[in-house]
Amino acid sequence: MKLYKKESVQYVDATLDECWAFFSSPKNLQKITPQDMGFQITDYDGKSMYPGQIIQYLVSPLLGLKLSWVTEITAVKDKSYFIDEQRFGPYVIWHHKHFFEATATGVKMTDVVHYGLPLGFLGRIMNTLVVKAKLNEIFAYREMAVNKLFNSK
Question: With contact defined as beta carbons under 8 Å apart, do 141 and 38 qualify?
């Protein structure tokens, strides 16, 4: 299996407390996810993020096909970082680190995603033709949505 990496950095015009409060709440994920993804949280306990928290979703990444996706929050350091990992879903592995760092003008957010696809050679072709571009599109949308929420003051 080939492991891929996607990194993203964004600067947010907010305090670390404001930024952390927003991004560490699973209920805000839908606000920064493209509508055409059909993203819907189907189950989570409504609590603030903590290690061991399970979140269940429905997503439609391609052709309107609904897929179940289950992630677990595996690590949290308050106002510093959290990690979510897929437990069930379209990837063989999905490991997403979210870092938050106070700066002189706000917060630097860094995302690092490592992911792997099923089906060996076919998965590598799918990454080249579809998955990589879709992830870039999702992160570009997120950047735009975060800019609207925080950086247009």
Answer: no
